[in-house]
Design a protein that fits this description.
462 residues, FAD/NAD(P)-binding domain, globular, Amino_oxidase
Amino acid sequence: MARIVIIGAGMSGLAAASRLATLGHRVTVCEADGTYGGMVGRVERDGFAFDTGPTLLTLPAVYRDLALKTGREPLEELVDLAPLAPESRHVFPDGTEAVLPNASRGGVAQALDAAFGAGSGERWGEVTNRGRTVWEATRRPLLEEPLPAEPLEDPYPRPARRGLSRWLPRTRYTLADVARRELGGHPGMTALLAEYALRHGLTLDAPAGATVLPYMEQSFGVWSVRGGIRALAEAVYRRCEQRGVEFRFGTAVTEIVVEGGRARGVLTADGRIDADLVLSSSDRPGLGLPEPSREPGRIAVLLALRGGRPAGTAHRTVVHAADLARQERALAEEVPPLRPTVQVLRPDDSSLVPDEDHEAVTLHVTVPGGGERGTGGDAAYADHLLDHLAAAGIDLRERVLWREVRRTDAVPVPSLAGGRINPPNDSGVPGLYLIGGGAHPGGGLARVGMSACITAGLIGPA
């Protein structure tokens, strides 16, 4: 049995702790804050509750595996999961609407034919088929296994070149090329493709391999958790407690102790904690992970509304930018975009509201990074967003009881979609492993869970 210290009680720390304790190790988790969950936060006020980090779950198989490997029970016995139905409703600037079913690529094709005309669904399907090729080429090395030594090239199978273009040097192939050459420059389908990228802070200049993002969602589905994603963090924390994990909250690690070229423990304000192995999910200087780069962030507007949720309302509605090119320029110039693409999240979950005569709604917008995280200004921008939604037919302004505006991190860019390659889980320092959003295979609920699984596999049983 190894003595293991984990720095950070975010989702990666919780997932790693539960797996390693199940394997027979003695695990202690040090967390600087007073609670667990990391970015999976929560705001509660006047009977309303809001997630302040991730709000939906993709690739639930990651946490299904965790539940089975640490307790031999299905995830559905730990949390109440439900697939979104529909997956999303899309409102485009010209008034066109498209309602996309969940986990049905054939159904998506039919919806796009209905919205944009016959043949649209077939074109979109050809693009997502190429996204499937990216998924199959990168899933194991960039998600499920330790980071490969050799970098992978974008495996997107670009269409054959014709005419004189065959003799020109091959250039980088981007989502903009996909939109122009494979989607015929159709504004609606271009906006749809761009929205999947935008959620991760990408633009149409991203590599064509980012088509894996719509492929994944439309193939494997999008899920909600009753009580919000915070309920998932609570379930994994309970599993840690059942497996005997020790938690030390309010205990910031100031240094990883390396002696004789090997990690031997950590230093905290309360003293040294000796360990045989250290796992770090912290990007604070000196704690293993590199400091995060300046990337686009996200503004979340939490809306407490009078009046119940209208029947038939989609959980997720996407109001697309009035001018996609203008939005991308604003992000490049690091100014908040006007009339941007907005995700409107309206869960049908009675546990998040005081009663059936109220509704909890969250707006998400990708904005330039570098703003102050947490509660702050941006009130005027929130007003602008509400006006923008009203012009698109979603007028919530007169129903607002109170609101809170928060800046958070954007959903991290997966490496398989052209994002940066994070450091490997084996740090190169014996006894020190890296987990979490800053380590392989990257950030986001699914990937930090994979990070914990890979690292537990590297360490093995007691």
